Amino acid sequence: MKKLIGCTDVVFDILRTKNKCLTDSGEVDMNALKRAVGEQEEWLISSLLENEICRKRFFIRCGAVYVFKQRDFVFFLEQDMLDHSYTKFENKIGLATGRGKLLKDYGEVVLYFPFKDCVLEGGQSTEEGVDIYFEANADTSDYVEKKAKRKEVFFNAVIGSEEIDRLLEPKAFENVRRNTGNGEKRFAGFQYDERGVIKDNLVIKGNNLLALYSLKERFLGKVRLIYIDPPYNTGNDSFGYNDNFNHSTWLAFMRNRLEVAKELLADDGSILVQLDWNEVHYMKILMDEVFGRENFRNEIIWCYNGPGSPKMKQLNRKHDNILWYSKTGNWIFNGDDVRMKSEVHVGGFNGEMNSDVSEGYTEKGKIPEDWWELFHTEEDFVEEMKRIFAEYKLNSDADWLKAAVAARIRVDGEKRTGYITEKPYKLMERLIKMTTNEGDIVLDFFAGSATTAYVADYLNRRYIAVEQLEETQEKIKTRLKHTEYVYFELARNNQRAIEKINTCKNYDELLAFFERMCERYFLDYNLKVREFREKVSREETFMALPLWRQKEIFCKMLDLNQLYINYAELGDIRYTVKEEDVFAANEFYKK
Question: How far apart are CA 90 and CA 98, in angstroms?
Answer without folding.
Answer: 11
